[in-house]
Design goal:
The complex is a heterodimer of chains A (about 130) and B (about 140). Chain A is α+β, with helices and mostly antiparallel strands and about 130 residues long. Chain A has 2 helices and 6 strands; from the N terminus they run αββαββββ. Chain A is globular and about 45 Å long. Chain B has about 140 residues and is α+β, with helices and mostly antiparallel strands. In chain B, a hairpin with a 4-residue loop joins β4 (about 50) and β5. Chain B is globular, with a radius of gyration of 15 Å. In chain B, about 40% of the residues are buried. The chains are: A alpha+beta (about 130), B alpha+beta (about 140). At the A-B interface, α1, α2 and β3 of A face α2, β4, α3 and β6 of B.
Chain lengths: ~130, ~140
């Protein structure tokens, strides 16, 4: 999954997979700061993390490779991430239909019980075969 | 940091400047461009922005990030803000696949109140009439 050049550039890695849920981490890196020295990663990087993680959650629904397309993505930013801290997304697949996959993800910073952001996305996928 | 950078630019009628003041913006290859009194945020293509290798397409997250930067730059351009407005939410519609080329984004302020601002952003590549994505954003203004 992290052969995706942009995901690799952000340093994303899969922490674990529990059933349908993926935990994907973006480790802290000074290059992700909007304001140098602040320790706070850019919202844009969090959005890209969500986009990647939710896409991965969609891929995970299928046994073989499918071409997927993001139709839309909505991100709510509750609060800033903890400075100098990694950011983790926990994904959940809401529904797979004939053409679409509906997914969401909670974003955590230091406190793994209190999300700092939330994302929800709809993906379409190629071919009409049933999801696994 | 951003204020002195922008106030110097505001004196110029035409410019195309790299947003090197921010580490993340530098990593993304963001530039700020002014032409015919229009402010455009640009994401110069480089291979780290790719989201799909075959066929090659931009990562949706990088396009979203460009649109968010364009919105923020527009807010700073219109007013001499002291603090960075806080993003509340972003809703992105992906309209076309992003080709491995430079991408442009222009933000329009729908409403700016004392506490909140609502913006709409469009992102395009070679043809401005064929946007590859659009986004709605809300920001909380910080006094």
């Amino acid at each position: 999954m992290f052969l995706i050049p942009h995901a690799r550039r952000l340093g994303l890695r899969l922490l674990e997979k529990q059933g349908d849920n993926l935990m994907i981490e973006m480790p802290y890196n000074a290059e992700l700061e909007i304001i140098p020295g602040s320790g706070i990663v850019a919202n844009g990087a969090i959005t890209a993390l969500l986009d990647t993680a939710l896409g991965a959650a969609v891929f995970d629904q299928f046994e073989e490779y499918r071409r997927i397309v993001t139709l839309d993505l909505r991100v709510d930013y509750f609060e800033k991430p903890e400075p100098f801290s990694s950011v983790v997304v926990k994904t959940r697949c809401l529904k797979v239909t004939d053409h679409m996959v509906f997914v969401q993800g909670d974003v955590y910073s230091k406190d793994s019980t209190d999300p700092i952001a939330h994302g929800v996305a709809v993906f379409s996928y190629a071919e009409m075969e049933k999801a696994s | 940091m951003i204020l002195p950078f922008l106030s110097k630019l505001k004196e110029k009628q035409t410019f195309d400047e790299s947003l090197d003041i921010s580490p993340y913006a530098r990593m993304m290859g963001f530039r700020l461009m002014r032409q015919d009194d229009k402010l455009t945020t640009v994401m110069k293509f480089h291979s780290d922005l790719i989201g799909s290798p075959f066929p090659q397409a931009l990562h949706g997250g990088s396009v979203a990030s460009l649109m968010e930067m364009a919105a923020l730059m527009q807010l700073f351009w219109d007013r001499d803000l002291v603090h960075i407005p806080k993003a509340i939410d972003i809703t992105i519609d992906y309209l076309r696949s992003g080709k491995p080329e430079d991408t442009f984004a222009k933000a329009r302020v729908f409403r700016r109140g004392r506490r909140f601002a609502t913006l709409h952003v469009e992102a395009w590549q070679s043809n401005p009439d064929k946007p590859i994505a659009s986004a709605m954003l809300h920001f909380q203004m910080v006094e």
